[in-house]
Queue: 4 jobs
Job 1
Amino acid sequence: MARRLLAAWLLGAVCASCLQGQDPRFSQFYASPWNLNPALTGAFEGRWRATANYRDQWSSLLSPVPFRTYSVAADVRLDVGAYDHFALGVGALHDEAGTARFSQNKAHLGGAFLKQISGGPRQTAHVLSAGAQLGFGQNSADWGRVWFSRQFDPLQERPDFSAPNGEPNAQGSSSPYLDFNAGLLWYAVSRRNDGFWVLGIAWHHLNRPNVSLLADNPSERLYLRWTMHWGGLLPMNEQMGLMPGLLLMSQGPARELTAGAALRYSNGDRNELALRAGAWMRVVNRLNQSVQTDAMIAVVTLELERWMLGLSYDITTSSLARVNHSRGAFELSLTYYHLAHRRSRVVCPRF
């Protein structure tokens, strides 16, 4: 129990001091396209799309205040000529961590232009997309939930939360900041529309916004984050397909690589029912510049006509597993696709 409490305290202390410069992430990154790459806006089947994501991390260790991340987004695709499209979207994200409830809140408007550069009715279609997002964000912390050494009462042998903490430089929230993201994407859809490949790169926080919570340190710039992602669907037969994927992210001193694959089974009917099951591995760097396996991720996804529901669980494999008994994070994703007004050959992948 002492080890668990010590680990939880250290984890909370690290989060309070470092998470200002890091973005939250989803293990089902492909199910959160709005947070992955602005160029994915409009890259879907149908007229418009809505997504929702929820992540609960380390509840076995930090209950009742685990790390939680919520995200919602919606985008619509508009025809430009016979093969090109323009897309608009809006999305919001809330992330909270630790006892002090350090929170990040962001909301963005975005757009993308999708240009088909080759292909036809009986040929593989190749599409290039460029997208951008502009929005606002604000970080905050509830200092009333934590205590400092000045608040410890030696007579009662416990902290006195009513006593002043003596921290005049601590602010409840940062100033609202402007945030700018951009991305590029290439994808190809097979002529039979039974397979696709995707390659993208994105840059988040290009303007390096100020997110400081300290009055005596008014400049704390958010690290720029760049992301590369690759994936696709490789048909094995009429019903089975292999879906490999890879994600590489870098933000400040942090590096992360997620790689894996899923098997997809489809009944091939008009009212399509498909099931995906796969496993992923996440590798991260440590402060001493070495690397370690952070987690193994088990994922199950159900596709039913316009809906897609994903469930995943992170199994901790790092040294933290000795404390949390390998119980990492639970994640839920939900996507809805609204059909287009007119039926035509779809040249968009379904992630």
Job 2
Amino acid sequence: MSVFKAFRISASGLTAERLRMDTIANNLANVNTTRSADGGPYRRQVPVFAPLLERAARGALGPGRRGAAGQGVQVLGVVSDPSPPRLVYDPQHPDADADGYVEMPNVHVVKEMVDLITATRSYEANVEALNSARSMAQKALEIGR
């Protein structure tokens, strides 16, 4: 694998995890938003990723193996979580229904914080992979001296 390919793979991971952290921050910022542009409560947003694959040449993956070689990750988009909103009893709230229940966003702070920690760790792992590839490239250049 070329050094530049390793850089591209790590960069795609960094981009994906950054989007994931931005989406989580947006979800946390709207944890109490009961009115959105759609008319209902805010819907939790979730990024969708897919592997970025390159068809491997015959035998490139090893003897007798065919398939696709990983080239990183691509962002397919950001979608709304289809889970139902939380119902909270608060008859004084301006958005309460006739029974006193308010539809709150389907954002759970603990779940978002766990997702944020995993996104942060994944980001850090991609930075380490990028630094390792850079270090290997520098060592390869030193050999040529």
Job 3
Amino acid sequence: MNLFWSITLFWGAAAVAVALALAFVLPFLFRSRQDERQQAARRDINLAVYRDQMKDLKTERANGQLSEEQFLASKLELETRAAEDALAQDDGASAPQASRRLGFTLAAVLPIAAIGMYAWFGNPGALTASSGGPMDAGMAAAPTEQDIMRMIEQLEARTQSNPTEGEAWEALASANGLLARWPQALEAYQQAYQLLPAKPAVLSGYAEALAMTSNLVLAGRPIELVRMALQAEPDNRKGLELAGIHAYQNQEFAQAAQFLDRLYQLLTPETPYAQDILSMRNEAAQLALAAGSTQAARAPDQQVTAGPQASIGGSVQIADELKAQVGEQDTIYLIARAGESGPPLAAARVAMGTFPLPFSLNDSMAMSPANVLSNHQEVVVVARISKSGNPIAQPGDLEGRVMGVKVGAADVKLVIDRVVP
């Protein structure tokens, strides 16, 4: 229901309620006085008749037509009836008289009084204010870049007029981060940190700005800030995310999976961000398994069966046009999948070196003990150069793949020839 019909329905219901209240009062107040006059006239006629009857009784007694006893009895009956009519007239006179003026006054004042009392004691703003529920939040349009820039300008003016307001510096830093204005965000976070050195959101935001302005390196001061944030607030989301990324960068995949799993538990599962974190967490767990970091923790029935293991080997080359985009700090991931979009069967992280780089994937690098290379005849082999150290493909990463690789092949030639969009 839109706003117009909501307001119309509210005031319509209010009008009906007022009309019902007046309907109980006005008919009595607007009642015609003619009925009262007619009742009075009938009482006067009855009393006149009583007087005539009394004269007749006296005449009949004087003529001897009635004995004294009969006269007294008839007289008593007439006096009683006359007294009843007189009392009825007195009651009518003492009863409250209907007033048309009072009726008109109530008809005008009651609706005004009702509206005034609602305006004073009620909540008129609720008729037009948003409820702020999930549907409203979902219908609200996301802020545009222009909106954020206007907010940044307002926050800059606010920090200039009140440079000791830490919350304003924090909001300014966060807004700049939304637009990936990391140098400006870093400067604002530095100011916010001076004023709010113990606030977890400031600590984790400051760490992110430091990392984004230093080639995504979290080692050193950034990770120190992250640890401080998580110590003060163990469920700090930005802190958990950065801690997971730092563990990835250090090839501590089991620890990365733990941080990311804690983060995922705090998120709404249906959101794209939560799905990305879940994928990263699963990839970390798989890489930890491939590296053998969780081998000792497996239950006996989860151990990979001993004996001959299937494997795939070969070399990785990079296309000439992409060689200039490869950095010494980049990371290479090798993944064997069951089909182009199937689950990973084996994965390995290869240190950057001189191309062509040799690689080998086998059952010991299985992502799941129940789903290994030996269970398949053909797989898809993917090589990806990650710029961020994240095993999940990111825009700007370099990638190559070979379809239909026979399990057991030892001369697979992988060429990294495309940029991930």
Job 4
Amino acid sequence: MEGAVGMVELALEQLSKKKIVELDEEKKATMVSNLMVVLCGERGAQPVLNTGSLY
């Protein structure tokens, strides 16, 4: 679990540093949650297609 937290932290730092995407606190929390599920899940990740807006 500690490794997953470090990977999420690094991902957020790199996204911000390289200005790939700007995340407000709500979107950052969603990304952290999604990354933790993928990194800690027992099955392979399944792609999700967003067909609407985030709001």
